[in-house]
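Morning F.,

Quick status update on the modeling queue. The single chain you submitted on Monday has been processed. Sequence for confirmation:
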Amino acid sequence: MNLLSSTSVFSFYTLASRFLGYFRDILIASFLGASIYADAFFVAFRIPNTFRRLFSEGVFNAAFIPSYTSENLKKKEDGKRFADEVLNLLIVILLAIVFLVEIFTPFFVYIIAPGFYEDFEKFSLSVELTRITFPFLLFVSLSSFFAAILNSNNKFAAGAAAPIILNIFLIFSLFISYLFNLDFVSNLSYAVSLAGFFQLIFLIYFSKNYYYPSINFKISISKKVKFFLKKLLPSIFSSGVTQINILVGTIIASFEAGAVSYLYYADRIYQINLAIAGIAVGTVALPELAKTLKLGKIDEASKVQNKSIELCLLLSIPACFGLVIASEEITNALFGYGSFSEKDVTLTAQALKYFGYGVPAFALIKVLSNFFFARDNTKLPFYISLLSVILNVLISLTFFKSFGFLIIPLATSIATWVAVMVYLIFLLKYNYFHFKTFLAINFIKIIMSALIMVLFLHFGINFFEDNLIYDNYYKAFYLIIVVTFAAIIFLIISNLLGVFKIKNFKTN
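Structure tokens below.
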């Protein structure tokens, strides 16, 4: 398997989805700005969407793929039986969760956004919208199951393409609401749940050649399923630590007007790199890593791990530098229209800059945790993630009064970097990982390439300074020119230095 080419397939569809997502968020920012309607929708959307990220962006894979691969290597019928048991159990649990949340939505919203409780209109609207959006959790979690089936068979395209459906539905609902003067936030919320349903149908269709489900709603918990469940809950927490930290940030930010929206928009911007550098690399590498370890090919597994880290750094370090240097210009170009004021741009950009410092760490977490998951070790990642969340909460609460909501992205970045350091310590301690010489050398080369890129990025921003101001409606066009130019420079330099070459990422 070539890690780079497989990651490229996953990344292509992920990028398509993210760019549509940005267009969606540009429309939301233009129509709703950072109003109470935007805050209410983002909280309502954050709840099921957080679960989506927890389940779909590598977390379900982390628990399911090693067990499913192990059963499939024994006998195809064993793999099918295991998958059926997991699917039926998943359906029952998810239906129960959706039912309970629909009944106790006010309590649930209060937990997620306690700062809204003092504003009756905002709180009531958040409750109403959450009830509409929450069925999305059922559909998208089941979608993750079928995506994991495909990923286990090294088929990554459909799983990566499925989220495109959500963005298409949301964009369509915004245009319909605008054309016919309808309620934006209600239509957006209905579109979320509807998109989840069609996303599930889409993945069922593409997985039919590899798995045909037998649904009977019976709860059958065999030893293999018990082992899977034992891994799943810690996996959800540990692999989704970044999203949990963001959710914690949303809770704290709810006490400051507009802060939820600022964090949401900033989160949306850096997520595109996380999707490629962390989620894509981790998703593609895990099946291969699990397979090589099950077959006892330790040297090959070590190569997969080193190449995964290298590719992760190659994709995340230049993004980190770019987001820190050009946070204002990027935010302005993406969201600086209509109801989204210059003040909104400035505050969102500041949050983005602090998130930017943590981008390599956010990506590395997705990759490093898989080194444990592939070995069926979920306990240690759980404890490391718990440490990260506690540290994030302590920093955020301690300094919130002094720094406001901006402490939240900074605390998230610091806590995640600490988690990365702890991961590396235990990987070496347990003999799960061996640094290859090429990794250290290529890391230096990546840093050099990124620094040269920054010089050209800074030059481009200064050259087009007058075209990147808030009042220029064509600023996105000029930013694309600058970013594309800087990215090409990075690729050329890294290629000349021998880092960015397809053959370098072959794992067998």
